[in-house]
Request: fold
Amino acid sequence: MDFFKFDGEVWQRLLTLLNYDSASPMTLASGFFLFAFMVFGIGYMAVRNRRMARTIYVSLISLYFYYKISGLFVLLLLFVATSDYLIGQRIAKRRDEGKRTRGWVTLSMIINILILSYFKIGGLFEEALNNLFGNGTINLGEILVPAGVSFFVFQSMSYIIDLSRGVINPVKRYLDYLFLLSFFPKVFLGPLVRNKEFIPQIERENIIVTRDDIGRSVALVSSGLIKYAVISKAIDTLLLIPAVSGDFGDSGVVMLVALYAFGIRLYCDFSGYSDIAIGIALALGYKLPDNFDAPFKSATITEFWRRWHISLSSWLRDYLYISLGGNRKGRFRTYMNLTITMFVCAMWHKVNLPYVVWGMLQGVGLALHKLWLEKVSGSKALGKDMKRGWRIAATLFLFNFMTFTWPMICMDTWEGVVDIYTKIFTNFAAGDFIALTHKAGFALVLVVIGYAMHFMPKRFNGILTGWVTRSGFVGQLLLLVVTIWIVMQAQMMLAGDGGLPVYAAF
Reply:
């Protein structure tokens, strides 16, 4: 009978499993998630080929994981799912009857845009009103941004738009739509999925996971964990934070090294998470789209945005740029549409002056490149179409151009941006690089490793994935165990410097 007795410590641990910890939200790289996912996997094997049971099981687990990530904001996710499911059913009915659907589409867009606006620009709205009517007139309190709010809201908006365009048919059940929005590998940081490609995966009866799927899944999760939880975190903690805070001095060479480090840190953070999400989904029998394709290999700014955060870039193109008129309204409107699209992209990430300027700069860059393609005979949109010498030169130019725009992303104020540029151009002090290698040598090694992984020829990824597939269950398990051990060692080394990754609030 003692076996069934629970003392206070056991109950406390159970409550810890159920409660949301705002000081340490769950991530896909946390020990808790890895343990919980293994437990979840046991149950999943029992229901994976029973469609309704699978949908209910995965949806409930997804909501639980989202609660562990963002607390009671899970209710917001449920609200968006319920609202747009009901609106979607109404749109589908009116579409079948040959009636207009614009009013219902507009209602959905208003609801979703208001949600995004509150969390993204609520603070700016409050400040503007107080400046206009007197300080203290409006008090919204501290606005906490739910993790992944932009991802599930954008996903829901695309569903409504696709329905109105006749691209897809409505989901059969509310639970199917809840699955679409909440599916835990992608709900936090994406990637955004195409409804016409993912909904059929939800509605199929049986799940088939091949040997190649398992091999690719293990390879993706392992590489993603190394990029996301080791390289990105360590560069941030050991190099970027000390550099910005002045621990390494105020010389321009420190700032320049930090900028080049920030680029690969940003890439490893976001692409690493995407790899983990895609790999986990693949192991469960669901295919998510690739989200990054070695963006720093791009030779033009157009190519960069086809390789960087592919699912978001294509979403903005299909649902915003084209809706604005795309390139169908003349040259000037095309350039304006590009600029507006990148402005929205910047606002989607962060609402402050430096980030907005960065977004506008990207839009102007895309417009100028489009003009270049129209006016310069023989110019190419993609690096693969260029001669080798031109491709290398163009790639180096674009890489350095993007690097010198990073201050607008990593600094919250324009004064901070100017300060970085001022140090680079007025107090470079190249000799300080030697001292930096002594203070942050390990982080610099990780920067080199990160870029080496990024610039590795694509065929090598195929070779490594093939090796993982051929290694069988024992080899794959060993790879995961070693990877998790490395991650745990890195987390212990960097203990006390926690916090969410750079895109956690998006």
Remarks:
- Residues 212-299+406-496+502-506 form one domain.
- The chain has two domains: 25-203, 212-299+406-496+502-506.
- The mean pLDDT is 87.
- The chain has 22 helices and no strands.
